[in-house]
Amino acid sequence: MEAAWRLDARAREDLESYPVGTTFVLHAWPTSPPVRLVRGRRRFGLDPNPSRPADYRFVFKSLAAVFPVLLGRRSVGGAYLKNRMTVAGDLMTVMPFMRAVDRTEAALFPSFLIRGLFPEPIRDVPRTLRFLWHTILVLAMLPFRRRSDEPT
Predict the structure, then answer these.
(1) What is the pTM of this model?
(2) 38: Cβ–Cβ under 8 A, 6 or more apart, which residues?
(3) Which of 46, 101, 118, 132 has a Cα-to-Cα distance from 124 of 20 to 30 A?
(4) Domains of the chain, first to last
(5) Phi and psi for 8 in degrees, rounded to 5?
């Protein structure tokens, strides 16, 4: 979110529509630890105060519902439409946040992977950030690679 705030004017405009101190909580029900984001004066980042009540809460119904969103196979809005996630708070006021999350994801994934799911990706993302994210994805998939010397 911090990269979208700095690099993308549309995401920044969406995130700046919230007052300073607005808190968003994302987690997978029932046991995952929550991710708490707060809008600051000049940034949007992790909330240092875990006791602050959440203004908006996004709850994915299971970890299986989170993985397609994290892997770029489904947008946050698509997860809501497919009934994989619930939103606590006013849905109309939370839409700019969902758009900003989608634009952040679109910036991280290669265009062939996200074609048709997200709006046009952010083009000003530094190549090193994209390369780092793609390297992490490839390394995460290595344990699932079948070796030619293994029996089938």
Answers:
(1) 0.69
(2) 21, 22, 23, 24, 44, 45, 46, 47, 48, 49, 52
(3) 46
(4) 2-144 (3.30.1050)
(5) -115, 120
Task: Please check whether residue 25 is in contact with residue 35, taking contact to mean a CB–CB distance below 8 angstroms.
Answer: yes
The number of C-alpha atoms within 13 Å of 19 and in the hemisphere containing its C-beta is: 2
d(C-alpha 62, C-alpha 114), whole Å: 22
Residue 34, classified by CB atoms within 10 Å of its CB into exposed (0-12), middle (13-18) or buried (19+), is: middle
pLDDT, average across residues 117-123: 59
Q: Is 89 left (phi over 0), alpha (psi -120 to 50) or beta?
A: left
**What gap in Å lies between CA 53 and CA 106, rounded to an integer?**
29
How far is it, in rounded angstroms, from Cα 100 to Cα 92?
Answer: 14
